[in-house]
Amino acid sequence: MAQQDEVFKKIVSHAKEYGFVFQSSEIYDGLSAVYDYGQNGVELKNNIKRYWWDSMTLLHENIVGIDSAIFMHPTIWKASGHVDAFNDPLIDNRDSKKRYRADVLIEEEIAKIEDKIEKEVAKARKRFGESFDEALYRQTNPRVAEYAAKRDALHERFAQAMNDNNLEELRQIIIDQEIVCPISGTRNWTEVRQFNLMFRTEMGSTADGAMTVYLRPETAQGIFVNYLNVQKTGRMRIPFGIAQIGKAFRNEIVARQFIFRMREFEQMEMQFFVRPGEELKWFATWKEWRLKWHKALGLGDEKYRYHDHEKLAHYANAATDIEFQMPFGFKEVEGIHSRTNFDLSQHEKFSGKNIKYFDPELGESYVPYVIETSIGVDRMFLSVLCSSYEEQKLDNGETRVVLHLPAALAPVKCAVMPLVRKDGLPEKAREIVNDLKFDFSTHYDEKDSIGKRYRRQDAIGTPYCITVDHQTLEDNTVTLRHRDSMEQTRVNVADLHKLIHDNVSLNSLLRKLA
Ligand code: ATP
């Protein structure tokens, strides 16, 4: 774990050093859990968003996009349940004065027991070598069985307490498990309290006429309250979907792990409207489609897993997370929820407007059921960054830091470099840039040795470096260097465009999904 912490620290500082992510308001000592994206970060982020957006709106003729406002009528949040129930249970340690999420403390305790099981299995694997039957060992080893029973009992007690909203029981679990504060090392805990995560502000100029409004904690409600506008003006027929990318805000109690948990972040959400009774079929379909979208990036199939929810949110009848293996463990990147007709029915009730859909095939009106896919842009960014980062030992004893970003997501697609800054090579290189720049984000770089320039591009994940040398002036060929293999091939300038395009275009990624 310590080694992974080390790697994560390096990734965070790499992200800063190479213009991916900066702490917000850094010169004022920062603002907790708020981050800015730098020149490379914004490109990577935009590419992730484009991949998602196109996969939704281009590949599905029944999905369209919208862009709704961040501010919405405050009654929307009353109707959706966020004013009353968008809470996290918090607990303070009296000695360190540190605040924690009670549910997270218990989840971490469960993860610790799981770690112990995995350690036992790893030890046995080493001991038995090739003949190791892992499944059998997990079933029959008494120590593993003991840990598993402990984990299951704790899990059940925890799920029950969460389902019942039983704050005293959550505290009791923390006491019984002898969970200590990682800072003070003591068990001097306060009561558990509920804390609402929505930011509020005031709209209107006069003090008594002002209205409390909220910064949206999810983008979904903007889709719900517009679904009939889109359906009618777009002549959509169920099943159909509405996609949206936008900022969301949550006053997270504990904000840690870099851009994993932020107070201002971005979501990519799609609500898919279906007939009542068909929601679980669509839930299963979207669960599969969304994992396929992730896996198409080639970050490693083994890095993903589903986590089906036992405690369902107040609106859901099925829910799963897609988790990704971050350096700090498997963590949620995306949620897929069957939200029933809860939100739309609530809006019908609170607004007093009829927002039913008339189904021409059935000849009847109903409130549609909704499957939601909700993914955090920033968490997606983090998973791409973490899985791409490598400190690679080279044959010559040197180390290079390389980001093996999926080529379609890389901030810069190619860098063009004159071997020397004379003899007409810079001019030729500029000529190539001026041709490629209309289709690809292209860098021109003439500073430092060619080796240093390659390293700089490796560090930001540029898939191709194109080197212009004296031979180029004679036969119009250049060296094309591939980031991952560092292989160099001689290619004709006239072929560059196609070669690059075939590997870096979003198109090639999207085709894997079709
Ligand atoms: P968590 O349990 O980690 O708090 P959640 O279950 O509350 O997440 P959802 O409400 O399902 O998250 O939100 C959908 C997605 O939005 C999440 O899968 C995640 O990618 C992203 N997200 C939610 N909260 C944050 C946050 N504070 N910072 C960054 N991304 C977030």
Overview of this protein structure:
By secondary structure, the chain is α+β, with helices and mostly antiparallel strands. The chain folds into three domains: 1-86 and 197-393, BirA Bifunctional Protein, domain 2 (2-Layer Sandwich), CATH 3.30.930; 91-196, no CATH class; 400-513, Anticodon-binding domain (Rossmann fold, 3-Layer(aba) Sandwich), CATH 3.40.50. 41% of the residues lie in helices and 24% in strands. The protein contains 18 helices and 23 strands. Strand 14 and strand 15 (364-366) form a beta hairpin. The protein is globular. Adenosine-5'-triphosphate (ATP) is lined by residues 250, 252, 261-262, 265, 267, 332-335, 374-376, 378-379.
Short description:
Helix content is 41%, strand content 24%.
Fill in the keyword field for this structure.
globular; 18 helices; 41% helix; seven-stranded mixed beta sheet; five-stranded mixed beta sheet; binds adenosine-5'-triphosphate; 3 domains; alpha+beta; BirA Bifunctional Protein, domain 2; 514 residues; Rossmann fold
* Fold-level CATH name of the largest domain: BirA Bifunctional Protein, domain 2
CATH hierarchy class name of the largest domain: Alpha Beta
CATH H-level superfamily of the largest domain: Bira Bifunctional Protein, Domain 2
Major β-sheet annotation: 7 strands, mixed
Strand portion, in percent? 15-25%
Question: How large, in whole angstroms, is the Cα Rg?
Answer: 26 Å
Structurally, how many domains make up the residues? 3
Structural class: alpha+beta
Tell me how many strands there are: 23
Strand order of the largest sheet: 3-9-10-16-13-12-11
Weakly predicted, low-confidence segments: none
Number of helices: 18
Q: What's the CATH architecture name of the largest domain?
A: 2-Layer Sandwich
